[in-house]
Specification:
Elements: H1 3-12, H2 17-26, H3 29-37, H4 43-56, H5 62-68, H6 75-81, H7 88-97, H8 103-113, H9 123-134, H10 140-153, H11 158-167, H12 176-179, H13 181-190, H14 205-208, H15 240-246, H16 254-258, H17 262-265, H18 275-288, H19 291-302, H20 309-323, H21 341-354, H22 359-371, H23 378-387, H24 392-405, H25 408-425, H26 436-504, H27 513-549, H28 554-571, E1 581-584, H29 586-594, H30 597-612, H31 615-619, E2 621-623, E3 630-635, E4 639-645, E5 649-657, H32 661-664
Parallel strand pairs: 1-5
Antiparallel strand pairs: 2-3, 3-4, 4-5
Helix pairs in contact: 1-3, 1-4, 2-4, 3-4, 5-7, 7-8, 8-9, 8-10, 9-10, 9-11, 9-25, 10-11, 18-19, 18-20, 19-20, 20-21, 21-22, 21-23, 23-24, 23-25, 24-25, 25-26, 26-27
Length: 673
């Protein structure tokens, strides 16, 4: 049987007990080895041939099996490949080193690699275990598997013991079956045989949903002939099914294609794909961090004549940002292939960070971090992540600064890279800079609170404007009503004066007394109504002035925060009284000169009272969360005094406005005890 026929047969076989048994019976050991070496483009065939090799005892190259292991899609097949002791460690290490390994397979690889192994001999597995203890695990079984593995190692690794304690703080003790899960998994893999594979396997949905080919339709193998004269003719070798399986881009929509596993996308013929399909697949491989597929897709993209510098350069830069962060990736393409000078400089910085050797490399890294001081930290984060591969401690210090100074989302990413670097170095899980993550969380909370306050202020402003409009309209109505009453009053007064004059004139006709009383009553009523209108207008004017001077929600917000601080301070236990000498830092003295005189005087008096151990002053002070020795005390309503207690002195760090407190905390990290 030729190699092509062996590949075709191996690709069509389902990875079931019967399918692999039949393949092992049909192909001899030499045919299996030759076909396996030639099957790098066909994941199904290569996996099935590797399974047949285990069944027949055929030796395959260890490096080829290690390269295949992260791409195996089913755990049953992978467990059978791990059964032979020879090469198992290399395959487990390959599973841990490949960033695209499925999380479920990675959890099993961690448990197997650390089972009956000195943790010092498996640093990558130990670092991966620490990462998994921090993160949400894929399922209950794998969660218990990782926790049970950590439970076994907690006495030998105090840092894993700390993470295990935190992960299990709010859950019951693992039951005996969960504790024994790593051992059961190791026994199952060691004793794996053909029975671990399923007896039946439904056809893949994509293959089952492939359209039926009519006799006169073009043959799906791509020959250009009709199906009846190609793969559909009697006695013909049925390559149509192979074409459907190996060329999913011909039978699937772009969205369906991008939904395929990364190992499938990595084996596509990139040179034959449409430009948009190629670009989208390259992006998916970058997200999945499938390094071999990304390298192939990138090489094919560089060879394309893509119009437009930006359209050509962005996929290259995206791939470079991934490949540069992994030392085991192949050599990245020359940055000179990038057309845009700006993008080319970014690529050169990424490549310099991947393995800095010369002063020029460090100067390129320095330039990126210098530019990042006044720009969004996108490239700075990429360079820092790349630097983690070869200089994790330096990268951790750089990322630590970003964690404090960047936008909360970028800061969270930087803090995660710090934790990743510490896990890789085997350092203590908690960063020694107090409260990095707590500060980030508090930044998020303050950002949300600010957005809520802005929304409330907008609503209050809209309500205030509506109230002002109503008050002004009411004043206009009152003024118009008063003007009408005054005009009517003038007419009534004139008529009354005329009648009174006629009544006083003895020679004039007699005046009707009832009419005279009516006019006098009307004049009194009009005067009363006018006075009432004036009082109403005066009240409206007072309301309008008060509304125009008001600041919505400011008093309520201040009162709420003050009450919260007072409650926190009153609940804090007092330390034993001890006399200390107050000392003012240069920053505190500078801040003091810029404060209003009364506030500066209160701050000086408060510092002296705190240093003297005054109980009332100490009741209004509290420790800052996330800092070991930094405290704050209220100076009036709107200012805060920050200070540190030493053995014989009280150091005033700064005096600042309450609204500036959170934005200034990062400056005081070196003063924290």
């Amino acid at each position: 049987m030729t190699v092509e026929d062996a590949l075709r047969r191996a690709g069509r076989v389902q990875p079931t007990q019967a399918g692999i048994r039949e393949l092992a019976e049909v192909l001899g050991p030499e045919e299996i080895a030759e076909a396996f070496a030639a099957a790098t483009h066909d994941l199904d065939a290569q996996t099935n041939l590797a399974l047949a090799a285990v069944v027949t005892g055929t030796a395959l190259p260890g490096d080829a099996l290690a390269a295949l292991a992260p791409d195996v899609l089913r755990w049953e097949s992978l467990s059978l490949l791990l059964a032979p002791e020879d090469g198992r460690t290399a395959m487990l290490d390959a599973l841990l080193a490949a960033p695209w390994t499925p999380l479920e397979h990675r959890a099993c690889a961690v448990a197997l690699r650390l089972h009956d192994t000195d943790p010092a001999d498996a640093p990558d597995a130990r670092a991966e275990l620490r990462q998994m203890l921090r993160a949400q695990l894929p399922s209950l079984f794998h969660d218990e598997l990782i926790l049970a593995t950590a439970r076994r190692l907690r006495e030998r690794d105090p840092h894993i013991a700390l993470l295990y304690q935190r992960a299990t703080a709010k859950m019951p003790e693992l039951h005996p079956e969960a504790i024994a899960s790593p051992g059961r998994l190791a026994d199952a893999v060691t004793g794996a045989d053909l029975s671990v594979l399923p007896e039946h396997l439904e056809r893949a949905a994509a293959t089952a949903s492939a359209p039926k080919v009519g006799r006169n339709d073009p043959c799906p193998c791509g020959s250009g002939k009709k199906f009846k004269k190609c793969c559909g003719r009697p006695g013909a070798t049925p390559t149509a099914d192979d074409e459907q399986r190996l060329r999913p881009e011909r039978r699937l929509s772009l969205d369906e294609l991008l939904g395929q596993p990364a190992p499938v996308l990595a084996r596509l013929p990139f040179a034959e794909l449409e430009t948009e399909t190629h670009r989208r697949v390259l992006g998916e491989l970058a997200v999945a961090r499938h390094l071999p597929g990304l390298e192939r897709a990138l090489a094919a993209w560089v060879a394309r004549a893509v119009p437009g510098d930006e359209e050509h350069d962005l996929p290259i830069l995206e791939a470079l940002s991934i490949l540069a962060a992994y030392p085991n990736a192949a050599t990245a393409p020359d940055p000179a292939l990038i057309r845009s000078p700006e993008r080319r400089a970014e690529a050169e910085a990424l490549l310099a960070a991947s393995d800095p050797q010369s002063p020029a490399d460090w100067q390129a890294i320095e330039a990126v971090f210098r530019a990042g001081l006044d720009a969004p930290p996108g490239l700075t984060l990429d360079v820092g992540a790349t630097l983690l591969a070869t200089h994790p401690a330096i990268a951790a210090y750089a990322m630590r600064g970003l964690a404090l100074d960047a936008h909360p989302l970028d800061g969270e990413t930087a803090a995660g890279l710090v934790a990743y670097a510490r896990d890789r170095l085997g350092a203590r899980p908690d960063d020694p800079l107090p409260g990095v993550l707590r500060l980030l969380d508090r930044d998020d909370a303050h950002a949300d609170a600010r957005e809520a306050r802005v929304a409330e202020e907008r609503q209050a402003r809209a309500a205030l404007e509506e109230q002002l409009a109503e008050l002004r309209a009411a004043m206009r109505r009152t003024r118009q009503a008063n003007e009408a009453l005054e005009a009517e009053l003038e007419e009534g007064r004139a008529a009354l004066e005329k009648l009174e004059a006629a009544d006083a004139d003895e020679g004039a006709p007699s005046v009707d007394p009832e009419e005279l009383r009516r006019l006098r009553t009307k004049v009194r009523e009009l005067k009363g109504r006018i006075e009432e209108g004036k009082r109403e207008r005066s009240a409206l004017r007072g309301q309008l002035d008060a509304a125009e001077r008001s600041e919505p929600d400011a008093p309520a917000e201040s009162e709420t925060e003050e009450e919260a601080e007072a409650a926190e301070a009153s609940d804090a236990p007092l330390e034993p009284t001890r006399l200390r000498v107050p000392e003012w830092s240069s920053r505190a003295r500078k801040s003091l000169t810029a404060l209003p005189g009364s506030i500066a005087q209160q701050a000086i008096v408060l510092a002296a009272q705190l240093a003297a151990g005054d109980p009332l002053a100490r009741r209004g002070a509290k420790k800052l969360e996330g800092f070991e020795n930094l405290r704050r005390a209220r100076v009036g309503i709107h200012y805060r005094l920050l200070y540190v207690l030493h053995d014989d002195s009280l150091e005033v760090v700064d005096v600042l406005a309450r609204e500036n407190l959170d934005s200034h905390l990062g400056r005081f990290r070196k003063t924290i005890g």
